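User: I'm new to structure prediction. If I give you an amino acid sequence, what do you actually give back? Let's try with this one:
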Amino acid sequence: MSWSRLLDWVRLNNHKDLKEPRRRGVLFLRAAAFSMAVLFFICGYAWAKKTVVLVVDGKETIVQAFSATVGGVLEKQGVALLEKDEVTPSPDTPLNDWMIVTVNRAVDLSITVDGNEIAARTRGATVKDVLTEYMISLGAEDEVSPVQEAPVTPDMKICVDRVRTVTEVCEIPIDYETQKNYTVNLPQGSTRVAQEGQEGAERQTWQIVYKNDREISRQLASQEVVSPPTDKIIMVGSGMVVSRGGEDIRYSEVREMVASGYTHSGYNTASGVYPHYGVVAVDTSNIPMGTKMYVEGYGYATARDRGGAIKGNRIDLFFESHSEAISWGVRKVNVYFFD
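Assistant: Good question. You get back a string of structure tokens that encode the predicted 3D arrangement of the chain. For your 339 residues, that looks like this:
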């Protein structure tokens, strides 16, 4: 065997011996790298996977999430956020293991105020909170339904009624009355207006309540006569004769008057005479002192006295005793006047 062949054989055998360990080393490195990759993947998966407690409208759910933020886990769970919904913590907060994420939904409702209906969405707890949120101010008399303390519920309808009370002052006319006085100084059946009638005036104060600019009640608070009416007086010609007590009495005027009774006071009358049956107290601005008359149910009388309470179309008849005056009382009578 030549030396060259021997060397070639050694080299060939040595090369085979070196190549086998090199192949085994490469496989080991690949296996180690794969194992490390699997280990890193398992560790990364375990690190990225988080358990989250999700509370939506009070309902609690435990979910597994790989999201980086609170908003991400909400999106993955299909929890859509609407206007004024509240998320705690905020959606951009980094997600942590066993974090509690709470979603409080706002509710939809409507507010009717000032003739308008407002579609509202709120997280307010009470009706008062909603009115404050939507900057709806209330007057002292305004009414709210439901009441301001009522809790907010979905699809609630809140109604605000504007209420105001207004004081109104007005003057209304007072009608006058027409009196007929009979006289023999005019031809029978003819008439003459002795005094024109004139309306008076009364001042009235009203309390008027409006709801949403519509009147709902009206109450009279006070009334005052500003000017009294003046009665119209018509003189009627009459040649009539009235028969009283078996006697025919010819009169110039007859009036229906209110007659009361009085008795001795210990003083003389205003005309100076001592009071006696047939004396009558009158309003001298209406009936002159000394006027003669016939009072139905009483008899002949003469105006000899006056009294502070005797005003206008009223007379006071004298009686000798208190019991007679009380028995007469106060009544309406026809009074016949003589010329």
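You can read the tokens as a compact description of the fold. Here is one thing that stands out. The first strand starts at residue 50 and ends at 56.
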